[in-house]
Amino acid sequence: MSSILTSAPPSPSLVSFGSTRASPPLDSTELEQPAGQANIELEAKGTRHSQYYFKDGNVVFLIEEVLYNVHRYFFERDSAHFRSILETVQGVDDKNPIVLPDVSCSDFDEFLAILYPT
């Protein structure tokens, strides 16, 4: 067993795996930033809905300063209006939601309750 340990080839040098270009230095402010700090900027346009902000959602709506992250499938399948909106870059994340100014949170919640029955 000791012969295996002594006869093993040496580990390759880390230098051989990297590029010849030097990496840019780390910004110390990035390291000091608290873990939740990065999410504050993302949530700046509104607060996330407690029920209808899904981790796997793929379209974000902003209604009365509340963010909804839901599944675009329902909107693309059933609405030509939303199909055209979803062709743009709107609604891809919390920083660029689709704003629905003429819709109330209570109305949108009732609509989503049909799509997502509990």
UniProtKB/TrEMBL annotation:
Region of interest: Disordered: 1-33
Top-level division of the source organism's lineage: Eukaryota
Domain BTB: 57-118
UniProt cross-references to Gene3D superfamilies, sorted A to Z: Potassium Channel Kv1.1, Chain A
Pfam families: BTB
Compositionally biased spans, kind Polar residues: 1-22
Name assigned to this protein: BTB domain-containing protein
Organism: Athelia psychrophila
Taxonomic lineage: Eukaryota, Fungi, Dikarya, Basidiomycota, Agaricomycotina
